[in-house]
């Protein structure tokens, strides 16, 4: 082994595990700034919920010749964003926090915006912008948490991969659209 980290002795591991057992998965070895991680995850949760709502609005409001295919894709994305929101909420609870589902402050806490948009190309563009915001903020979070909270970092990395797929699909859809027409 080339690692310079010293392993904690079994005796110490056993003693530490018995302390503060009410904290569940949050052990002595958890070295990230927990309140900061919880705040970060709640912002990500708000972002996902806003994306669920925006995609759903666009799904129902899609009109025009391509509305069947593109509208169906919006619904698929909406449901996947809901899945992300659920994963984030579960992790927040695991870390001893409370997921913030409060509708009043949702759009303030979200990184991405809720933009109605009129035409199909406008909708695709708005969703693509939101995905690109999510991609950059998840990439930042993964980097910040990589060493100190690898579990959360891995979760965010998985979500990031899906957001990249979403962005790629939207960019493809946009290419097939006549500019500013539905
Ligand atoms: Fe998402
Ligand atoms: Fe997405």
TrEMBL record:
Pfam families: Ferritin. Residues 31-181 form the Ferritin-like diiron domain. Coiled coil: none annotated. This is Bacterioferritin. Gene3D superfamilies: 1.20.1260.10. The gene is bfr1. PANTHER family: BACTERIOFERRITIN (PTHR30295), DNA PROTECTION DURING STARVATION PROTEIN (PTHR30295:SF1). InterPro entries: Dps-like, Ferritin-like, Ferritin-like_diiron, Ferritin-like_SF, Ferritin_DPS_dom. It comes from Hydrogenophaga pseudoflava. GO terms for cellular component: cytosol. Keywords: Iron, Iron storage, Metal-binding, Oxidoreductase. GO terms for biological process: intracellular iron ion homeostasis. Fe cation binds at residues 48, 84, 131, 163, 166. Its EC number is 1.16.3.1.
């Amino acid at each position: 082994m080339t690692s310079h980290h010293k392993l904690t002795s079994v005796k110490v591991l056993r003693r530490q595990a018995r302390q503060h057992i009410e904290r569940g998965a949050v052990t002595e070895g958890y070295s990230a700034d927990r309140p900061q991680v919880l705040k970060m995850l709640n912002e990500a949760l708000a972002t996902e919920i806003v994306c669920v709502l925006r995609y759903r609005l666009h799904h129902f409001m899609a009109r025009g010749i391509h509305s069947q295919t593109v509208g169906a894709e919006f619904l698929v994305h909406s449901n996947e964003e809901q899945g992300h929101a659920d994963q984030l909420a579960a992790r927040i609870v695991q870390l001893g926090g409370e997921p913030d589902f409060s509708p009043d402050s949702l759009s303030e806490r979200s990184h991405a915006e809720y933009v109605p948009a009129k035409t199909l190309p406008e909708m695709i563009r708005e969703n693509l912008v939101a995905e690109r915001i999510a991609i950059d903020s998840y990439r930042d979070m993964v980097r910040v948490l990589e060493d100190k909270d690898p579990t959360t970092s891995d979760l965010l990395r998985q979500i990031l991969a899906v957001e990249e797929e979403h962005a790629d699909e939207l960019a493809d859809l946009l290419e097939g659209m006549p500019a500013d027409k539905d």
